[in-house]
Design a protein that fits this description.
Distance between the termini of chain B: 22 Å
Low-confidence stretches of chain B: 1-50
Low-confidence stretches of chain A: 1-39
Number of strands of chain B: 13
Structural class of chain B: alpha/beta
Mean pLDDT of chain B: 83
Largest sheet of chain A: 4 strands, mixed
CATH topology of chain B: Purple Acid Phosphatase, chain A, domain 2
Oligomer: heterodimer
Number of domains of chain A: 1
CATH class of chain A: Mainly Beta
Structural class of chain A: alpha/beta
CATH architecture of chain A: Sandwich
Order of helices and strands of chain B: HEEHEHEHEHEEHEHEEEEE
Helix content of chain B: 10-25%
Number of strands of chain A: 8
Distance between the termini of chain A: 56 Å
Number of helices of chain A: 3
CATH architecture of chain B: 4-Layer Sandwich
Strand order of the largest sheet of chain B: 1-2-13-12-3-4-5
Largest interface: A-B, 30 and 34 residues
Radius of gyration of chain A: 15 Å
Strand content of chain B: 15-25%
CATH superfamily of chain A: Cupredoxins -  blue copper proteins
Strand order of the largest sheet of chain A: 2-1-4-6
CATH class of chain B: Alpha Beta
Number of helices of chain B: 7
Radius of gyration of chain B: 19 Å
Chain lengths: 126, 316
């Protein structure tokens, strides 16, 4: 039988940052060089009301995307091509993945599979 | 007893005696649903000339979510304890209890342990199937199977017989596909076909699984992708009762010889399909919570009455 375990407590300052997510996400996708964005600005996808928001997010290669669960119910973030898979995210838990290669990454919640989203990784045009 | 105020078509009632009564009783709303009279069972017993048998009663309990502590119910263990206390006070001790999943909220050992201790106090045997909340450990269900699913097959499916009724526990919360609903998978369906192959069509069948086996509301994932294959498999049986959880509210339907029923949670209610922005936990006014939590009793009185399903809230 597996030994008892507890999930580590996670810090919460990101919740404030999360409010401005869509704008930041757009900024990251609109052509600012990825090197200037990654590591400084959090690119966040909110999970609220059993929905990934934004449902489709466009970022530059090298961007780290962070999912934050705002629901009272746990969710997961699982790539359909199995590239990434979060552990179970309870309320306020976060999961990050860095997208290196251009492409479209479809993902879903393995607990509530009607919840789907896509991260589009594209090099800035200018 | 038939309620003249019932909104169900009277033709349905007289033809099958399906919806037996729907009445206010005391402080709570009591639903009683006949699941299709297994006539061949009555015949068998008549031929055997047995004494009038005591009613065979079992219970369904669902969605305990032990460990849940959010505003919709800060003490899910407490309300489970209340449900257990209610079960202990029943005038007729049920033969056993079926738990239709989401025993825990996050599959933590402590949550499973607490649930186990509380449910043990009922003093009757328990049968389980997992909900998606019970398979969240690193080994994706090992904890559940070690504790609640010993002797089961695959992800935790099995069958057993009691009092001439064939019970089938199915798992539809594993290997869910993006954009899809609950999922049983080909291995489990193949097993099911073999499991019922030798049964006479007069055998009453009770099927239980966490997510509804019929499509309640696909927009919220409330259904099972390959659930129709289960029903196809059971079509030849004279009486089939399908018991589910997951949606934390009572929804029932009769289709041919099949009665579908979902149970209340003992932890928190969820909104009716499409009435909220999401299926998440619903916070109800203080004092109202126990009216929307509850347990389900099922009575099979051989040869006399249809299988009756009675939902009882924790408080009126």
């Amino acid at each position: 039988m597996p030994s008892p375990h507890t999930l580590p407590r996670r810090f919460r300052p990101w919740l404030v940052a999360a409010v401005s997510v869509p704008i930041l996400a757009l900024a990251a996708g609109r052509g600012a060089p990825a090197s200037e964005r990654t590591g400084t600005d959090p690119v966040i996808i909110r999970i609220d009301n059993f929905t990934f928001g934004p449902e489709t997010l466009t970022v530059a290669p090298g961007t780290t995307v962070t999912w934050v669960n705002g629901d009272d119910i746990p969710h997961t973030v699982v790539a359909q091509n199995k590239l990434f898979r979060s552990r179970t995210l309870d309320t306020d838990d976060r999961y990050s993945f860095t997208f290196e290669a251009p492409g479209e990454y479809a993902y879903f919640c393995s607990l509530h599979p009607h919840m789907t989203g896509t991260v589009v990784v594209r090099r800035p045009t200018n | 007893m038939q309620d003249p105020e019932s909104h169900h078509p009277p033709g349905t009632l007289s033809r099958r005696g399906a919806l037996e009564c729907m009445t206010w009783a005391g402080t709570g709303l009591l639903w009683s649903l006949g699941g299709g009279l297994p006539r061949a069972v009555g015949l068998t017993r008549a031929l055997a000339a047995e004494e009038p048998p005591a009613p065979f009663t079992f219970l369904q309990i669902s969605d305990s979510h032990v460990g849940f502590n959010k505003p919709a119910n800060p003490d899910a263990s407490g309300t489970l304890r209340e449900a257990v206390a209610m079960i202990r006070q029943l005038p007729e001790k049920p033969a056993f209890i079926i738990h239709t999943g989401d025993i825990s909220h996050l599959s933590k050992e402590q949550e499973f342990d607490d649930a186990d201790q509380i449910l043990r106090d009922t003093g009757v045997p328990l049968f389980f199937v997992p909900g998606e909340h019970d398979l969240l450990d690193d080994d994706q269900g090992r904890s559940y199977r070690d504790r609640f699913g010993r002797g089961t097959r695959g992800a935790g499916w099995y069958s057993f017989d009691r009092e001439g009724v064939h019970f089938i526990g199915l798992v539809n919360v594993v290997d869910l596909k993006a954009g899809g609903l609950g999922n049983l998978g080909t291995d489990q369906l193949a097993w099911l076909e073999r499991d019922v192959a030798g049964l006479s069509a007069s055998t009453p069948v009770v099927v239980f699984a966490h997510i509804p086996l019929w499509t309640v509301y696909p927009e919220w994932g409330w259904g099972t992708q390959d659930g129709a294959r289960v029903l196809a498999c059971l079509r030849r049986f004279g009486s089939v009762t399908v018991l589910n959880g997951h949606i934390h509210q009572i929804i029932q339907k009769v289709e041919g010889n099949v009665s579908f029923h979902t149970a209340r949670s003992t932890a928190f209610p969820q909104p009716a399909p499409g009435t909220a922005s999401s299926p998440g936990p619903m916070k109800v006014p203080a004092g109202e919570l126990r009216k929307v939590l509850g347990i389900t009793r099922l009575n099979l009185i051989h040869g006399r009455e249809p299988l009756a399903i009675i939902d009882t809230p924790l408080a009126g």
